[in-house]
Amino acid sequence: YSIFLLIWGNVTSAALNVNIEPSPVISDLGSDVLLHCSFTVDTPSIDFSFLIVKWFLKGVVLMEFNDKITVSRPRMKMSDTEISKGNASLSISDIRIVDEGDYICSILYTPEKIEKTVSLAVKAVSVFAPVISESKETDLVCSASGYHPTEITVQWLRNGQVLNDAKLSSLQRNPDNTSSISSTYTFTPTNQDKDKAYSCHVNHTALRKPIEEDILLNYVGNWHFHWPLFLLLCSRTSKFFFFFFFFLKLMLTTMTYSPVLFPARPEVSDIKEIPVSGEDEVKFTVDVSKFYPKEIQIHWSHNGKHLEGKTSEQHCNVNDGTYSVTNQIVIPERELKEKYQIKVTIKHESMEEPAVKEKTLQD
């Protein structure tokens, strides 16, 4: 009985303290995040025989350390070395919507046990506002995409005043459980609009503060005709002169100026990983945008093996004439191994060297 009391006394003398960072921790969709959790005991060193560290989400054990890492989840890590220093932080890579929630850091240092909660919010909002380039009835379109949860405010403003006649589209659900929506304001720009500030205002719970995107109204002027050059070209025959003049006049009354497009280098997104709902498959996508001309080659490989991708219908941007496209591959989950590499190569005449994006699997 006395020996038991002696051992018990040695254990209880190690007072346990646990510290976490303020909540919520806000992370962008697809980024990496570290949920901080540290602990101290009032002994010179940590005795692993007394220590158990666990991380929970919605009642499920995500990670567990009991002398060593005994439970782990894909995309999540704890470090044995850091735990020996009192750092039980949880690292999560490639943040997804399903990762959002209240995480519990549970530290047991026998006989004391302390649990603290860290809330993770996933920020998934992006805004596109176009540049106007025509002096005729025009649609200003502001799109918010990739956000979660679904409640959002998207408004057009002119000189700071809300344009109530702007129309809101129906809500669109994305494959990764995020949403997209757009607000459209239709009007005919005049010279008076050159001095007015148009902006798109987006407010969402995942944002620390609302986003406001200003747009620039660019006007295309009338065609100017240089008569000396015209007479030089057409002096050989009066019939050709009058025909060409009539044709030119017809063009000027029916056409607007559009810029000459030179090859435009594509912008390539990072590879996105999207689990296929209800299937044992994973979809990988890449967005390629702002390229011209429209001919483009997109090639995938999985751990060195060539895969055929599926390309969406090309979208042409009416403002600048460039093209955008999304390409994807679907791979069975059983073929995805840790450290395997997904690679996509993009070839276009605007690039001397192909653009390459790579993703190393963490699962």
UniProtKB/TrEMBL annotation:
Keywords from the UniProt entry: Disulfide bond, Glycoprotein, Membrane, Transmembrane, Transmembrane helix
Transmembrane segments: 240-262
Entry annotated with the keyword Transmembrane: yes
Occurrences of domain Ig-like (ranges): 30-107, 111-212
PROSITE patterns attached to this UniProt entry: IG_LIKE, IG_MHC
Record PANTHER family: SIGNAL-REGULATORY PROTEIN BETA
Name of this chain's protein: Ig-like domain-containing protein
Gene (UniProt): LOC102349399
